[in-house]
């Protein structure tokens, strides 16, 4: 037995909080009966309807996607831009991104229809490392890179410690390639970090998420995660370590 709002969220209909509001607004029925109070639990044998549409028990799917630049990390976009789900039109399940990469950032993005899995990975207390490669304007001095590593203030709050390493630089073109590993997921965080030290990002890509990377993929391509990889991610989020399997 699971709480009704959790079942709705896991079906990919809405977040758990939004699912709770849908229940309170009288948009949900269980076995034909309207439910307007929170706390109701349902089993696999119960029939759940949301706004007149019965929930189907989808197979859980998990994908690693190489998001290209110029694509929105969303299911739809009111400006008519390409969205990540445009690359999954052949998949019958209703997928959505785990977290997001901004429009101009490329790289590794997870896609799933498992709401519980997505919420687990996105919870701020779960320190899952994400590695970015940034091409920045100018050549940051060592002390500025140390500032990024120890934390800088963006949006009125200091960032957590990061791992920062200069990959290469070009004195003639006045640009540098810097690797940054963070475990937070704040809005446009890496870009804002470099802006704070006076070296704006010209190009940004997320190269790795936990133990996953983009090897073997080109921009716009994907691969389905193995059961072992899914278990590893869940264990990292819950316990901070890979399972011994």
TrEMBL record:
Q: Which CDD domains does UniProt cross-reference here? A: PseudoU_synth_RsuA_like, S4
Does the record carry RNA-binding as a key word? yes
Source domain of life: Bacteria
E.C. code? 5.4.99.-
Q: Which InterPro entries match?
A: PsdUridine_s_RsuA/RluB/E/F_cat, PsdUridine_synth_cat_dom_sf, PsdUridine_synth_RsuA/RluA, PsdUridine_synth_RsuA/RluB/E/F, PsdUridine_synth_RsuA/RluB_CS, RsuA_PseudoU_synthase, S4_RNA-bd, S4_RNA-bd_sf
Q: Pfam families under this entry?
A: PseudoU_synth_2, S4
Query: Matching PANTHER family, A to Z?
Result: PSEUDOURIDINE SYNTHASE FAMILY PROTEIN-RELATED, RNA-BINDING S4 DOMAIN-CONTAINING PROTEIN
Q: PROSITE patterns, from UniProt?
A: PSI_RSU, S4
* UniProt record similarity statement: Belongs to the pseudouridine synthase RsuA family.
Q: Where is the RNA-binding S4 domain?
A: 2-65
What SUPFAM superfamilies does the record point to? Alpha-L RNA-binding motif (SSF55174), Pseudouridine synthase (SSF55120)
Its keywords, alphabetically, are: Isomerase, RNA-binding
The name this protein carries in UniProt is Pseudouridine synthase
Q: Does the keyword Metal-binding apply?
A: no
EC top class named in words: isomerase
């Amino acid at each position: 037995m699971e709480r009704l709002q959790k079942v709705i969220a896991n079906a990919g209909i809405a977040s758990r909080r939004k699912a709770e509001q849908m229940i309170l607004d009288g948009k949900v029925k269980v076995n034909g009966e309207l439910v307007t109070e929170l706390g109701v639990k349902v089993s696999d044998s119960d029939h759940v309807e949301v706004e007149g549409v019965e929930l189907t028990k989808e197979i859980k799917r998990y994908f690693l996607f190489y998001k290209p630049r110029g694509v929105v990390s969303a299911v739809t976009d009111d400006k008519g831009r390409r969205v990540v789900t445009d690359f999954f039109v052949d998949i019958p399940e209703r997928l959505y991104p785990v977290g997001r990469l901004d429009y101009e950032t490329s790289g590794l993005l997870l896609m799933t229809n498992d709401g519980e899995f997505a919420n687990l990975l996105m919870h701020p207390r779960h320190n899952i490392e994400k590695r970015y490669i940034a091409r920045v304007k100018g050549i940051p001095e060592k002390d500025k890179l140390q500032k990024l590593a120890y934390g800088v203030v963006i949006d009125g709050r200091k960032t957590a410690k990061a791992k920062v390493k200069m990959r290469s630089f070009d004195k003639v073109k006045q640009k540098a390639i810097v690797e940054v590993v963070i475990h937070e997921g704040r809005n446009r965080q890496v870009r804002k970090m470099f802006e704070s030290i006076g070296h704006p990002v010209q190009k940004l890509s997320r190269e790795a998420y936990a133990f996953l990377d983009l090897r073997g993929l080109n921009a716009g391509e994907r691969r389905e995660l193995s059961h072992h990889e899914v278990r590893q991610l869940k264990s990292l989020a819950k316990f901070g370590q890979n399972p011994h399997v």
